[in-house]
Design a protein that fits this description.
There is one protein chain. By secondary structure, the chain is mainly α. It has one domain. It is built from 10 helices and 2 strands, in the order ααββαααααααα. Strands 1-2 form a two-stranded antiparallel ribbon. It is elongated.
Length: about 260
């Protein structure tokens, strides 16, 4: 078994994280401005008509969902764009001939996506401090959960980048899957505010467990089964991770 190429991995991780800061207006500035608008519109405009949910102010209730929404989008966008552009420019060939294992390549992409997701999430939380109570019930669990969800969507972004044949296909999952399921995952409302026949449908939505899990780490309240949520999160990391590794191994759409 070959020894880990720590220097090569460090170089690749530095490249991926550095790319985020080189275009910081797009990668960091844009989601923070978007989050500010969500907080102002849903927190204050809608919040004036909804007093409290589960004993907390409406704006405090929706903040974890807004944080999670930006974490998911940022992590997904980073890896999907980075890997696809390498395919498009054929610079992926340079990576494939580098002395890096497939696992090390995946870790390099993941590092960029996770770092971007966590930084954006922290930025949204910092904005929330000025408008909400922004409490944290379980700090280290919150960091772990944010990193875990960033990992899931970073892996998903890599799968989409491998599958996509053009930039249009690259954006389709975000438009037709991630955004709708996020809004239906309890970002701006409690599941108990929905009709009974829709509640069981929402509980089939994995995004509901992502949002509710972060809400528990911040507010200490949960509307889902935390064991189910954690099991789902771990299962997706393992399943998606193996899937990405296998596609790299067989050279799916990267050895053409």
């Amino acid at each position: 078994m070959n020894k880990p190429n720590l220097i090569g991995l460090q170089t690749f991780v530095t490249r991926e994280t550095g790319r985020m800061f080189r275009v910081w207006i797009q990668t960091l500035g844009a989601p923070l401005i978007s989050a500010l608008l969500y907080i102002l519109i849903f927190g204050y405009v809608v919040g004036q008509r909804i007093d409290t949910i589960a004993g907390v102010a409406y704006i405090d209730f929706v903040l974890p969902g807004i944080v999670m929404m930006n974490i998911m989008n940022s992590a997904f966008s980073h890896t999907s764009t980075s890997l696809y552009i390498m395919k498009w420019l054929r610079s992926i060939d340079e990576l494939l001939v580098a002395p890096l294992s497939y696992l090390e390549m995946i870790i390099g992409f993941l590092a960029g996506g996770v770092v971007r997701g966590v930084i954006v999430g922290a930025g949204v939380y910092a904005i929330g401090v000025f408008f909400t109570e922004a409490t944290v019930a379980h700090f280290f669990l919150m960091l772990l959960y944010a990193a875990a969800i960033s990992t899931i969507f970073s892996l998903a972004g890599m799968l989409v980048a491998l599958w996509a044949k053009n930039f249009e296909q690259l954006s389709l999952p975000s438009i037709f899957i991630i955004t709708p399921l996020t809004f239906l995952g309890g970002v701006f409302n409690s599941i108990h505010m929905m009709p009974p026949f829709l509640q069981w449908i929402v509980r089939l939505n994995p995004f509901f467990y992502f949002v509710d899990g972060l809400r528990y780490t911040m507010l200490g309240i949960s509307e889902s089964n935390m064991v189910v949520g954690m099991t789902l999160t771990l299962g997706l990391i393992i399943g998606l991770g193996y899937w990405v590794w296998y596609l790299f191994k067989i050279g799916y759409k990267i050895r053409e």
